[in-house]
Specification:
20% helix; 4 helices; alpha+beta; ten-stranded mixed sheet
Length: 201
């Protein structure tokens, strides 16, 4: 297991690319967390990749992700979130409101989360995608209708998780992509700093 951790740490340090065809640009590197950005091809807003090796286990990570009411305590700019529907033990739907001071109006969205876990290999892939037509739109809040993300999680030993996270979103409204892309790494980086703290508890 120690060799496996060493290989993963080497890959992170030297910029392992989960999608070699994408030209990822390193935007933030600290506390073992690296954040990249790249042209998404689907929107003018940058795609994001985060890679890190965190202390913790898959059970605790899934517990944190499923506790959507408490996302406001660790997911950057989340001010309100709640469960809309539990579809199954591995799938749920939840509402999120995000504070967007840079863009003057808050955003919100409804997300479907699907957890695919392979207990034999001790890995998991978690998908989060925006869905529409579930919760009525609210006055003064812009609804995000395009958001796609996934976590690729590997329990490398009893105490450590290797996580690669990808996301791309269009926040909607009258926003200059160039302005938004200037701060593209801030939210993911702070979110994973907070997640690291929760996993270590």
């Amino acid at each position: 297991m120690a060799l496996r951790i060493l290989i993963i740490l080497t890959a992170i340090v030297f910029g392992f690319q989960g999608h070699p065809q994408t030209n990822w640009d390193l935007k933030k590197d600290g506390h073992g967390i690296k954040v990249w950005a790249a042209d998404s091809g689907a929107t003018s807003f940058k795609a994001v990749k985060v890679e890190c090796l965190l202390k913790g286990n898959i059970n605790r990570l899934i517990e944190i992700l499923l506790d959507v009411d408490n996302h406001k305590n660790w997911v950057y700019s989340t001010i309100h979130s709640y469960l809309v529907k539990k579809i199954s033990e591995k799938e749920l739907r939840y509402y999120v409101e995000l504070e967007f001071p840079l863009f003057t109006k808050n955003r919100d969205l409804v997300i479907d989360m699907v957890i695919n876990r392979d207990t034999t290999r001790n890995v998991a892939t978690i998908y989060t995608d925006a869905v529409t037509g579930v919760v009525p739109e609210k006055d003064g809040i812009i609804r995000i209708v395009s958001f796609h993300a996934r976590y690729e999680v590997d329990q490398v030993d009893q105490d450590h998780l290797h996580i690669v996270y990808y996301s791309v979103a269009d926040p909607g409204g009258a926003i200059w992509p160039a302005r938004a892309n200037l701060v593209v790494a801030k939210g993911p980086y702070n979110t994973f700093i907070n997640l690291s703290g929760l996993l270590a508890k």
